[in-house]
Amino acid sequence: MVKKTCCLKPLVSFEDIKFPICWKDQFSREAPLVVEIGFGMGEVLLRNAQSFPENNYIGIEQHWERIYKTLQSVTRVNDSLKARVLVENIKILKIDARFALEAFFNERSISSIYCLFPCPWPKKGHIKHRLFSSAFLKLLNSRLVDKGDVRIVTDFYPYLEWVGEQIEDTGFKLDHRPIKPQFQTKFEKKWVAEGQEEFFEYHLQKVKHQSQPVPQVEEMKIYKINSFDFKKFDFVDVKSEVSVILKEKVYDELQKKAMLRLIVSEKNLTQPLWVNIIKKDDCWSIKKGEGQIFFPTPGIAKAIELIYLAAKNTTV
Asked: Dihedrals φ, ψ of 50, to 5°?
């Protein structure tokens, strides 16, 4: 018998998902939402879910290895003979936190948000990559219920100072204090072993709402042209606020079908995209390829439009 390594049930599938996500349906119940940004190996996420079963916990992480180990931990707990209550109040999103908070949550829908040891990006030239900017704090504010809170813990005092500089006009009341090691995460244990005995905590309480509606889903148009010559097709990569890079193009003469593989980057998201140019009846259609999962963002819509314009130019 093959031993089960992990259950994928906590992992949110983006296939056919609608924005914003209906979390009541995902959890099969309505309960306060608590979000952990960058949950690492899932130690705190799992511990909180067990300790506070009345809440629904959503973990956001981008690294597959960390997600896999967290799924293993959840499975191990649920498979244990000592498990009296199954851990079913965890959902995991593999996505950039900025995009997730913007697209997947309604305004005033999250009770609490916490982030333990975010990457401090200590080099001066990398500060622009830091997560808790003024713009991001305003986004968090919009997604929190009234009087909701954000907890940020860092090992790097300059990062604490930087976050403090971002607070103005974000709708939060700020409190900070030094704390002792208490989370027992992989990274905390590493710093303690290196001699660090104190960490720094920010507690942000929402006092004024900052409205930021969920962006609308873009319509994926199908473009049509009367003729198309693949040999003349030339696409110039676009590198701007929305970047569209052509990575591969193939053409099937028998099927009269071109397939183009693109990388689309915008704001807080980079996505692969296949666009097809197919002859049907007396015209050619330019549209998204079937059987792929992506978020219908303005960048994706723009990429398909750019391919249409390039294809149209082959008839000139």
From this structure: -75, -40
> pTM to 2 decimals?
0.89
Q: How many CA atoms are closer than 13 Å to the CA of 24, on its beta-carbon side? A: 3
Residue by residue, DSSP assigns 28-81 as TS---EEEEES-TTSHHHHHHHHH-TTSEEEEEE--HHHHHHHHHHHHHHHHST
316 residues of the chain, pLDDT tens digit each: 445 578 899 999 988 788 899 999 999 999 999 999 999 999 999 999 999 999 999 999 999 999 999 999 999 999 886 666 789 999 999 999 999 999 999 999 999 999 999 999 988 888 988 999 999 999 999 999 999 999 999 999 999 999 999 999 999 999 999 999 999 888 888 889 988 889 999 999 999 999 999 998 888 899 999 999 999 999 999 999 999 999 999 999 999 999 999 999 998 899 999 999 999 989 999 999 998 988 999 999 999 999 999 999 998 6
